[in-house]
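Exam revision sheet. Question 4 asks you to relate a sequence to its structure. Input first:
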Amino acid sequence: MSRYPRRKRGTVSYAVDDSDEGASTVYEGEADENWRPRKKKARKSSTAKMRRNRPKKNYFPLMELPGELRNKVYEHLLCLPDNEIYIGDQWSKEASRKQAIYGCKKYAWYTSGDFSLTTYRQHLRTTVTNFGILRTCKAVHAEAMGILYGQKFRFGDIDAMQTFLLRLSPATIARLRHVDCFRFIVQTAWKYAPAIFSLLRPATGLEYLRIEGISKFRGHFDDKVGTEPHGHNMSVQGWDILVARNMAREVYTHMYPYMQVAVREKGAAGIMKILHVFGKALDEGPTRGNYGTDALRYSEAQLRAPSNRIYTAPWTPARASAMRAAMGEELARLAARDAI
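Answer key, structure tokens:
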């Protein structure tokens, strides 16, 4: 006997049952007037289902507001009250990016020294910003990012600026408008300055750039790059041009990767409108130095005046404009020389 017995199959009949008297027969080539195509059941899409289940709310028409009002909304959500962001070079003893946030009051480094370390959770509890709006849509993200990175970014050192810029894309760096390295550069960081400032090359839209560390002549003061011979008979104008050209050389030595791009995009006059180096010497003029009765101090740099006429010459806005113009022209000349 087979292991698997045959199943009993029913008898299949293909005979046509003509017993229905009222049944109508449709032959080939004829049409049935009563026949209608069966309607297909509409398939409900997932989008329609989501819309049906979505709670009915009155959404705020943000994108219908004028651009000025939208910017106010972005500023309220993304910006700090004083529109200043301080980024230091401090670190945590534990290997964690979110372990500590270094915060300080405005200009605390120069005044009260009121610094405080707070944990990341404490920082989130006290923060006034809300970045959730950046995830709304691409249009809102594009508008809000310009407001976020248009704030004043103040760095404790160029090392802190390097850490910040390394995490940003070139498109984001291009949104920066205000960069302020307000502390002096440590001795070990000078040799890395060109590499650090190369990260700033996409920031062609900067409106303010201060590098407090560039405040003296780290190489040597070349008295042969002026328009007049260096000596007792040198005019005040010739002296100012000589000092300005040496300042430009000092700046270009440490910042040439950025200066090559900035001078090309903004021009000599444009770069001098945003550049702030050597303290306030380019705006308020030199002060009396410590080397003697003939010493002039330009921020941290002290130079001996060739004559008493230059030493006692009053500072005027015309002298300030002439020095800035001479410095910008020298930066443009150095950038053009390297482009060959």
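Marking note for examiners. The chain has a mean pLDDT of 80.
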